Amino acid sequence: LICSDNYNVLEDVQELTGQENETFIGVSCGGTDAPAVDIRVSIVEDIVPFNNYNVGMFDTDKSQYAKLLSKDHYDIEDYHVTIPKGKRTGRLDIKVKPDGLSPDSVYFIPLSISAMSAYEVNYEKSTMLYRVLIKNFYAEQKSSSYTYYTMRGYKDEAVMQATKEVQPINKNTVRLMPGNTSFLAEEDYIAENAILVEVQSDNSVRISGYKDLEVVQNDDDPDFPNVFLTEEDDWGRKFKVFFLAYQYKDGDNFIDIKEELRLQYTDE
């Protein structure tokens, strides 16, 4: 099974479109010559490599454990792969439904080769942890981080400058911390502090609390008009840009935030 050398993980970034995405896992054979006969490979879902990953990475800290991808989020119609005679690779087709997955969790489909019609199995690569990562146009979940925008702006009129993590939630929505609040990968902390920015069809945005945070959007600032734009400078560099103005409640007081988030990008 074609995967990395670290716990045989294969990371696959899936676009949040609201639709089902088609993807595949590769199965390959080695040797000097291509196979002289068709190779029929049977694959099963196998909890053993999944458990080995969690224990090996996190020992008894179950709060950090990866999760099994729910059957609601994928479909494998046929667990049999054929590597044709004279070829070196075959593919296991998967339909993935990434919408609704959390950027805070690691999701795996654990797979294992159970049988082959010819030749020998390389047991070091006979298992795989297929991991689904998520992205939208504005941000991407990566193996150990997220997308970082350059931030400049004001917090109660005091100047702010920093880089800010932006995380995909669905096709048009991202999650971030308000102002220069640091990100901390803890469920309760995120619930209490994070905000959502939803991009509308006219590129205006709606700002709200992710869960517990009270947020008031300010649409009256001409310099930070609550919009998302793409820009190109004189050197041909392209940028994704949010201009945001809002207040969030901190204790008994509201904190006033005006911020520009900017990310250089290239067309894919």
Structure description:
The chain is mainly beta and 268 residues long. 7% of the residues lie in helices and 48% in strands. The chain contains 2 helices and 18 strands. The strands form 3 sheets. Strands 10, 11, 12, 13, 14, 15, 16, 17 and 18 form a 9-stranded antiparallel sheet that branches. Strands 1, 3, 4, 6, 8 and 9 form a 6-stranded mixed sheet that branches. Strands 2-7-5 form a 3-stranded antiparallel sheet, with no helix packed on it. Strand 11 (158-170) and strand 12 (173-176) form a beta hairpin. The two termini are 27 Å apart. The mean pLDDT is 94.
The gist of it:
With 268 residues, the chain is mainly beta.
What keyword list fits this structure?
268 residues; 6-stranded mixed beta sheet; mainly beta; 2 helices
Write the layout of secondary structure elements.
Elements: E1 9-15, E2 21-28, E3 39-45, H1 47-58, E4 67-68, E5 74-75, E6 80-83, E7 89-96, E8 107-116, E9 127-135, E10 147-155, E11 158-170, E12 173-176, H2 187-193, E13 195-199, E14 205-209, E15 215-217, E16 227-232, E17 238-250, E18 253-265
Parallel strand pairs: 1-9, 4-8
Antiparallel strand pairs: 2-7, 3-6, 3-8, 5-7, 8-9, 10-11, 10-18, 11-12, 12-13, 13-14, 15-17, 16-17, 17-18
Proportion of strand residues: over 45%
Low-confidence stretches: none
Helical/strand content category: mainly beta
Written as H for each helix and E for each strand, in order along the chain, the element string is: EEEHEEEEEEEEEHEEEEEE
Number of strands: 18
Q: What is the molecular shape?
A: elongated
Using only C-alpha atoms, the radius of gyration works out to 23 Å
Number of helices: 2
Proportion of helical residues: under 10%
Mean pLDDT: 94
Q: How far from one another are the termini?
A: 27 Å
Largest sheet: 9 strands, antiparallel
